[in-house]
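Is this the right way to post structure tokens for a design question? Let me know if I should format differently. Anyway, here goes:
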């Protein structure tokens, strides 16, 4: 097996498991020594596709790949719940709100359905809601991504162009001072740009593990945004308002 084939196999296993020890990976990649596997992982780390962790583990870099919700939902779950509770403080009864796809926004959705608000969303997780709810929820259609439970594409964009929101809550993959907000998907970037343009106020739901990181598609700069996160950051805080659970 040539290095490229081994590396693609490694990425496939990591996308399914999220986090693996190097010894576990070796068992999944046929006829590969630990030293060879370590060389492959070093190369993938240089490309920004994986992250080597202390203790001999490795995980897929969520900044450069759209991970499935089964993986991202388990990452920083406690932080996302705290962020959702903080985001609720920014919503007033009667608001018309846009709620993005992604696990951070899904955490907020679970709480927001019990408020007297109108929610527009391209988050397919809304279709799993059952039972009574106070909110009016309107799901925006489009091309469906079963990994991220997200709707994107021309149909989604056409609908969003004619909608206006009091507040929007967007999920992102990376935020940095130099590059602003970035993510791996051009379609997702266009969707977020349209929502920001049509919203009175836009919030980014972003746990602090995504600070000072860059993905490959620019969404927009930091101007006119507020970040809701689990922790503050001195460097980013000079350029953008960061709202945390203790603020």
């Amino acid at each position: 097996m040539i290095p490229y084939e081994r590396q693609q196999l490694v990425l496939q296993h990591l996308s399914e498991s999220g986090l693996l020890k190097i010894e576990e990976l070796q068992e999944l990649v046929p006829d590969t020594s630990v030293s060879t596997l370590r060389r492959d992982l070093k190369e993938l780390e240089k490309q920004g596709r994986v992250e080597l962790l202390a203790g001999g583990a490795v995980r897929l870099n969520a900044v450069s790949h759209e991970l499935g919700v089964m993986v991202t939902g388990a990452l920083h779950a406690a932080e996302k719940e705290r962020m959702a509770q903080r985001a609720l403080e920014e919503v007033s009864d009667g608001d018309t709100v846009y709620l993005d796809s992604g696990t951070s926004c899904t955490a907020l959705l679970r709480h927001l359905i019990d408020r007297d608000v109108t929610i527009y969303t391209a988050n397919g997780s809304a279709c799993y809601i059952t039972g009574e709810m106070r909110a009016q929820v309107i799901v925006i259609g489009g091309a469906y991504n079963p990994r991220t439970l997200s709707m994107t594409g021309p149909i989604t964009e056409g609908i969003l162009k004619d909608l206006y929101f009091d507040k929007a809550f967007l999920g992102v993959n990376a935020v940095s001072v130099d590059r602003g907000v970035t993510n791996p998907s051009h379609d997702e970037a266009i969707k977020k740009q349209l929502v920001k343009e049509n919203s009175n106020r836009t919030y980014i739901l972003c746990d602090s593990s995504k600070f000072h990181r860059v993905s490959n598609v620019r969404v927009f700069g930091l101007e006119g945004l507020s970040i809701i996160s689990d922790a503050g950051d001195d460097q980013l805080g000079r350029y953008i308002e960061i709202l945390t659970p203790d603020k």
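Format looks fine. Someone answered above. Worth noting: Residues 64-75 have pLDDT under 50 and may be disordered. Residues 114 and 134 are 5 Å apart (CA to CA).
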